[in-house]
Structure formats: C-alpha cells, structure tokens
Amino acid sequence: MTDLTRLTLAAARDGLAKKDFTSGELTGAYVSAIEAASTLNTYITVTADKAREMARASDERIAKGDAGALEGIPLGIKDLFCTKDVLTTAASHILDGFVPPYESSVTQNLWNDGAVMLGKLNNDEFAMGSSNETSFYGPVINPWRRKGSDSKLVPGGSSGGSSSAVAARLCLGATATDTGGSIRQPASFTGTVGIKPTYGRCSRWGVVAFASSLDQAGPITRDVRDAAILLRSMAGYDEKDSTSVDRAVPDYEASLGQSVKGLRVGIPKEYRVEGMPSEIEALWARGIDWLKAAGAEIVEVSLPHTKYALPSYYIIAPAEASSNLARYDGVRYGLRVAGKDITDLYERTRAEGFGAEVRRRVLIGTYVLSAGYYDAYYVKAQQVRALIARDFTQAFEKVDVLLTPTAPSAAFGIGEKTADPLSMYLNDVFTVPVNLAGLPGISIPAGLSGEGLPLGLQLIGRAFDEETLFRAAHAIEQAADFTAEPEAWWRA
Amino acid sequence: MREPRKEDLIEGATGPWEIVLGLEVHAQVASKAKLFSGASTEFGAEPNTQVSFVDAAMPGMLPVINWYCVEQAVRTGLGLKAQINLRSVFDRKNYFYPDLPQGYQISQFKYPVVGEGVIVIDLPGQRSVSVGIERLHLEQDAGKSLHDQDPSNSFVDLNRSGVALMEIVSRPDMRSAEEAQAYVRKLRTILRYLGTCDGNMDEGSLRADVNVSVRRIGAELGTRCEIKNVNSIRFIGQAIEYEARRQIDVLEDGGVITQETRLFDPRAGETRSMRSKEEAHDYRYFPDPDLLPLVLTQNQVDAIAASLPELPDEKKARFISAYGLSPYDATVLVAERAPADFYEAVAKGRDPKLAANWVTGDFFAALAREGFTIETSPVSAEALGQLIDLIVDGTISGRIAKQVFEKMFKDGRDPAKIVEEEGLRQVTDLSAIEASIDAVIAANPDKAAQAKDKPNLAGWFVGQVMKTTSGKANPQVVNEILLRKLGISSAG
User: Fold this and answer.
1) Residue A288 CA to chain centroid, in angstroms?
2) How far apart are alpha carbons B482 and B467 in whole angstroms?
3) DSSP secondary structure code for residue B215 in this structure
C-alpha cells in the first residue's frame, strides 16, 4: 500500500468513501509518522489510543453509510483548543495538568463531522509569538531547511506546531488560531495553506483566549481545497460566543475552480515596505502576473494607515491579554506555587508559570490600560484601528480582494530573533492589519526563496467573503504549481 | 442648593457642620440565573454548588448576557424616572482577589444602561426631599471569601460569583442619617413594587456604600470617605453618625480628611480605615471584548414601560385624593405593595377612612404582635370589610368590633358568625337600656347624688351599664340617657 500520509485531505476523504482504505489504516499511518518525528517537537500530547478508537468508530459509520463530512480524517489540534478529558496547556507552564471538562465548539464541530484527533499541537505560549519559540514545551522545528544547511529553522508562530505537522505530514490538516498572523505566517514559512476567516466566523468558545477582539480560529492544510473543506466544518454560529455571527456557512469547496476573470485585485502600495527582500518583491510580482493572466483586473490601492497597524496591535493585543490572563492565578487549576499569603502565591505562580514573552505582554498591556496612560495608548490605538478598518472598507469599494506577501521574509533560524522582540514583531507587518479590521485572509504557498524555503502570498477579502478568497487562492495555487517538499530528514 | 436645616446640623466645638451624603446601593437583580451564565442564584445553597465554568473562569469560557437581567435594570430605571440609554457598554474592572476568579469584574463604567433619575423620599412632618440618581448600571457580584472556617486557610464560595447586581448611584443630595435611611427605605420600596430586587438586606440582596463628608454651611464639598457594604438600615444610621462625628473631630483638631475607603464595624459601632486613596486599585477599565455593546430598541423600552405597576408615589397621591386619607396614613399604606392592595380591597365600596383606621390600627398591630404578614394573615381583606360593615350598619359597636376582630384573628371565623354565635349584637332597644341604667343608679344612690357636681362620674356609670349589658348596649345611647337621668347637662 502506498504511504497514506501522501494524500491530501480531499483525496483521503474520497479514498475512505470508496473504501480504498480504512480510517484505522489512515490513522495508524499518521500515528507512526508522528512517533518517528519527535525531533520536530510538533505535538505536546499525542492521543494515539483515542485516535485509534475514533477511527474505529468512523470506520463503523462509513460501513453503515453514515459518514460525516470529515469522517475518519485524522487531524492535529492546536493546544489552545480545550479538549474534553485531554490535557490542554496553551503551551504554558501555568496550565500544568489542566484537563478541561469541556470541548471547544470548533473541535466539537469537527468531531460531529467524524474527524479523528491525533493529539494536541505545540504553539507559542498563549499564542504569543511569531516563531513558536516561546512554548514551555520547547521550540517547534520547521521540516524545511535551507539548501545545503542542516541548521534548524522556525516554523513560524504562533501556530508552529500546526504548520510544521501539516508540512511534515504528521496530520491531514490542523486547527490553528490567528490573532495577528498566527495562521498565515506559519503557513507561509512551511509551504502550507492557512486561512484566518472573518472575525466571528468560528466560535471562540473553549479556545484559550489571547486577545479576544482579534483571536480567530482557522485551518492549516496542504492545499486550498483542504482548507475549504476543513473551514466549513470548523465554522458556524455559536450562541455561547457573543461575538460569533449568525450566518449560514457556505460550501467553500464549491468556489474552487471558478474563474477569476474580471475579479478586481487590489495591490496596496503601502505594503512595499522598506528593506523587504527582493525575492519577496519578485514573488509578489509573480502573483500579480498569475492573476492577470487568469483574467483578473489589477488595481493599485492605498491603505494609508498601514504603518500604524503594528504599533496599534501591540497595544490592543497586550491590553486584552493582560486582562484575559488574570484568571491564571494558581487558585483553581494549573500550576500553583505556594506563597506566604495570597498575594505572594499569585506572584510566585505567575512569575514561574508565565514565560518571558507572556510576562512582557502582560506588563505592556497592564501599562497601556493604567490610569494616566489609557487615553494616550489604548484609546488612541482603538481610534487607529477604526481608521485601518476604514482603509479596507474604502479599498473594497474598488476591488474584490487584496494581494500582498504573507510575511516579509522566509523562515529564519531558531534563536535568530529571540533577543530582539521588535524584529520578531515585524514578522506580522502584513498580517496584523487584517486582524485589526476583522477581515478574512489566506496564505498560499507561491514559490521558494533563493535558499530553497517556501514563501507565501496573502489574499485579503471582504468580511464574510471567504468564497472569493478561496476562488482567487485556488487560481494562485494552480498557477504557482507549488510541488516542492521538504526532505524527510527528521524521520527517526 | 438646599438650605441647611438647623435640626440636621451637627454642633462641633467650633460651630455647626453640615453632613453631605451620597449612596451607592448594590441591589441584586431578582433573577433565577446569573448575569452572564446560566447558573442558579438561589440563596442559601451549599458552597460552590451554583458555579458554571464561566463563573469559575475556566480557560476559554465566555460570558453571554442574560436579557432578563437587562430588562430588570431597564424596569428599575423607568421606576426611578430615569433616562434609559439605548446603547450601553460592559467594561472590565481589573483586580486580583480570590473571590474574583476572572481577575476582573464585568461592569458598566463609561456607558451605563440607565442615566439620571430621581427618588422622592418621605420624612417625618410631611417633609419630602428629592434625591438625584446619577446612574444605574449592571455588574457581576463577586464570590465570597470565608476566613473563619480553618485556622490557616481561607475558603472561597463562588455561588454569588457572577450574580447580577444593579449599582444605583445617588447624587450627594442627603444631609442627615435620617435622610439616608429614608432613601434606602424608599429605594427598597420602589424595587419591591417593581419586583426587580427582593430588597432583603439580611441576605445581602441590598447593600449600601455610604459616602460621607462634612462642611461648614455654604462651603464647598469636603473630602469624602466611603463606608463600604453596610447591610442594614440601622447600621447605615450608626455608621453615618459615627463617621460624621469622626470627621468633625479631625477637622476641629486642625487635621485633614484623607479620601479613603472605610468599613463599619457594627459590634464596635465605629468605622475603620480599609485602604487609602494611594492604596486604591487602578482598575484599568476597558470595554469587555467578549461582549458586544448592549443595544436596546425604543420599542423594547416602551414595552417594559407599559408593564410597570403603579409606583408608591403615584399610589400615595391617589390614596390622598381618591380616598381622602391623611398623607401619613397614605405613606404608611403604600410603603409596600401588599398592604396597599389589602387596604384597597377593604376600602372598596366602604368608608375609606374607617377602612384606613382599621387596617393601619388594629390590623397592623395584630400582625406585628402575632408575627404574621399580609400574606399569612388569618384575617382576609374581605372579612375585615365585613366587620366594618357590621359597625356601619349598627349591628355592633366599635368597641365590640375590637373584640370580634381579636376573635377573627384567633380562629379565622366570619365576623357575622362570631356576632351571632356569641350574642354580641348591639342593644339599641331604648327600654332595655333604660332599665339597665335605672338598675345601676338604684344600686349606687350615693354616686348618683354626687354626679351633679362631679360630671366626670358619668363615665363610671357608662362603664357599669356596659358591664351589665356585656358591652352590647350602644354606648352613645347609654351616654345620652345617663346624662339626662343623672341631671348632668350634655354640654358639661
């Protein structure tokens, strides 16, 4: 039998339906692959027994003709999603031993559609990071390496476990979350597809919160079709999340293959940032050419407040995080470090339980919300946020989608940027504005850097117009014909 | 500005001082479920048995507004003749405390659901004062820390955590402890009429924070101290008296008042410093990103307005104008809805003043004496009305009626039945009364002889006649005949 992990999600789905193989076989192949890839450190928890059990149940349903949309499909779950009776850590020491007695709405949707859980994927601690180096469980390694080099590269972050596992074929697809680029940038770094849907499209209930007004779940997959399939199952209104939106979920897969003829594609001039590597510029130009050749109309647009997006983001996200993370106090669950009184217990627990990046953001967030600074920072940042959203609204009066690079560089080396948080934050320069505006964005692998590393292009769409994004993304995917794969150097 | 009343001033060593008082009342919304979770709010349950995952601030849990609580806040606002804000916002008030699992309280800071209103308070001597309401907002209650259960640990009960409170903030419009107490009483009456809060201070459903300052007459407002969580009307009075006197002593000794939060110790009868302004928390309020702004339509507000009951002030005015009651009786009767309803049932089709005398007199006295409420009273409004009918139609005298009433109260029998069974019908037969009088005069010739000079003796004779007739003789008739027979001029 051929290696079942070679299949895309769509192909596996069809193979299962045709009974070419069973979910038990498919799941077994993935469990073996995961066991052989511990070097990459993609999984915090592998739920092999649970996976086999779920696969068995899926095979029974398939046999009875009772299959769901994701029946028997083995998935990896970012460890930010609470999973009932399965350790959930957010990659933080402070959630030591936390086993939720409830299941997040998004993962419940997946299990309702028949998906199989392989385990919980590593990520930056509380999703704070752009390289997956802030995890208490250690950095995730990118399966991709530079040509002729064996130095270890980051898989992007915060959903680095998801991107790395999909690229290394350690799951058929993965859930991820994106607060400032945490789905799209890792997808770009690993030659995978990642879509952050419109804010409100996926329920946040049961997802460990980072910055509530920006957090949004989405999939990372091998290709655009797989992303369309997976997002459809993840998405949907949830009355338990007041910010989720009551709107029917379309069949995204149906958008694929539809022509982009006449589609108006905006090229925001402010995204030509200083110091951007020429190969990123060239990739962007290629993307423009591909869409033009497919019949799209290219329009230059302006998003004048772009340069204020990153500073605003690094005020709003930490502000919300400082409050969201207050509940980790050592009193009810997770890590508790004893102290001489309750304040001492709080301080010791939080000092030991949170890593440096999380502490930094809690401090920044506490500062910008403090009396005397609130108006100058938080209120100002919210005003800027409104202007950024208005920029997009005005651009979408002229165009249907925007095309930009996903990240300003290819994957970088482990430890290369950890000493300089600001250069790390710059990774999100193209993705952050999308979160601030609550819009959908997708990253598609579009080519390789001079060093042989994958690079992604980003498409940004109107709110709740994921269908147009998938249509255009599919066109780019067709044109790019990205078939490169990392060598399986990690296999034990 | 109000002219200070001499009676309200406190005489210090150096001259008179005026007290200025403002109250923040926390009223628990009479709702079965909490403000943002479905957990029960029932009083007196075993600790930590009414706690949802949201109330315990488990990771990934999200608040969802309980619309019933919003309606009660609007209803209360309308009852306070206040402005209803169609758009309000929930904010997070951030601080660490073990009984606050989220690390923040969800409250309304900048945009409360209810704006300015007014409460008219009733004071002795038909004096009334309008107290301005600044705002009413919705917020979550915290849990309860128990420090007396264990020598080395504090326990936390989260049953109250997340219960809906209305914080009702008055303007500093009160000038004496008496006014502050009347304000709380009146507010409680209004809340109970509306059914939005049960007003049970001993169960903590109604608590007051009292802001106290003192000043020289006509001077600017003094620095205030806030006395937290005073939970009875009597304690409110004691706390204010103590605190005002303390402040005056400090000022007269040349000291200054520092703004601070104080606690009232009912056992010692004094207030003590809890924390100074410098130690005050920086709550870092910001809009809760988990919740959308609270948006009401005018139609919703109108529908609630249409369902409001007649409120105490209107009812009192109607009792005075329609029934001719004294303002005092009217005030007593409308203090709660049940006695007002009871009175109206008694008064229906009868002499309203006589009805008021019976309800506020013998009836209330019997209830208080025997420990009954209107709801548990053995005498119904109908029965009391029948008793009044028996007086009015001359079947029994007022004095006999009191006896009949006590019997009714004891065994719940019908008044007519009691009169019949016990032969209490009033004797109006003149010849029978005359015969009794003659017998008494004949038996007491000495006294009869003295009566001409001592007209007061007539009363003694009336008593004797009533005794021989077992009280059934019409006392007025007895009096008239006696005066004539004893030769006392009726003018005497």
Assistant:
1) 24
2) 14
3) E
Q: Amino acid identity, residue A232?
A: R
A424-446 confidence digits (pLDDT tens): 888 899 999 999 999 999 999 99
The dihedral built from the CA positions of residue A275, A277, A282 and A284, taken in this order, carries a sign that is negative
Stretch B356-377: mean pLDDT, rounded? 94
- Torsions phi, psi of B177, nearest 5? -60, -40
CA B335 – CA B316 distance, rounded (Å): 9
Q: Grade residue B491 by pLDDT with cuts at 50, 70 and 90.
A: very low
Q: List, in sequence order, every beta strand (DSSP E) within B317-367.
A: none
CA distances from B3 to A379, B14, B132, B180, B244 (A): 43, 21, 16, 17, 19
Pairwise CA distance, residues B478 & B473, whole Å? 7
Phi, psi (rounded to 5 degrees) for B3: -70, 130
Mean pLDDT of chain B: 93
The pLDDT of residue A300 is above 80: yes
Residue B492 pLDDT class (50, 70, 90 cuts): very low
Task: Verify whether residue A312 is a known catalytic residue.
Answer: no
Domains present along chain A, CATH in parentheses: 8-492 (3.90.1300.10)
Q: Is the dihedral of CA B39, B41, B47, B49 positive or negative?
A: negative
Q: What are phi and psi of A121, to 5 degrees?
A: -90, 140
Question: Are A209 and B60 in contact (CB < 8 Å)?
Answer: yes
Per-residue confidence at B490, pLDDT binned at 50, 70, 90? low
Interface of B with A in 101-130 (CB under 8 A): 101-104
Phi-psi label, residue B396: left if phi above 0, alpha if psi -120 to 50, beta otherwise: beta
pLDDT for res B454: 83
Burial B115-130 (b: 16+ CB within 10 A, else e): bebebebbeeeeeebe
DSSP state for residue A139 in the 8-state scheme? P
A332 and B56 within 8 Å at the Cβ level: the answer is: yes
SS3 label, residue B165: strand
- What stretch of H or E contains B309? none
Closest CA to A220 of A188, A168, A176, A265: A176
Summarised one tens digit per residue, pLDDT across range A170-225 is 999 999 999 999 999 999 999 999 999 999 999 999 999 999 999 999 999 999 99
CA distance A417 to A425: 10
AA letter at B70? V
Q: Which of A104, A211, A329 sits opposite B103 (nearest CB)?
A: A329
Chain B closest-CA separation from residue A208 CA (Å): 4
Higher pLDDT, B440 or A141: A141
* Distance (Å, whole) CA A395 – CA A389: 10
Let me know if A158 is a catalytic residue. yes
Q: Considering only CA atoms, which of B69, B112, B109, B107 is closest in space to residue B304?
A: B69
d(CA B225, CA B247) in angstroms, rounded, equals 9
Which B-chain residues 142-161 have CB contacts (< 8 A) with chain A?
154, 156
Looking at per-residue pLDDT, the higher value among B87 and A419 belongs to B87
Q: Give the pair of three-digit tokens for residue B123.
A: 């004071």
What angle do the packed helices A48-63 and A9-17 form, to 10 degrees?
Answer: 50
**Phi-psi bin for A139: left (phi > 0), alpha (psi -120 to 50), beta?**
beta
Q: What is the pLDDT of residue A303?
A: 98
Catalytic residue among A92, A135, A163, A182, which?
A: A182
Catalytic pick among A23, A58, A131, A158: A158
B429 vs B201: CA distance, rounded Å = 57
Evaluate whether B387 touches B401 at the Cβ level (below 8 Å).
yes
Q: How far apart are CA A329 and CA A320, in angstroms?
A: 17
Pairing of strands B164-170, B15-28: antiparallel
- Delineate the domains of chain B, giving CATH numbers in brackets: 6-305 (no CATH), 310-421 (no CATH), 430-486 (1.10.10.410)
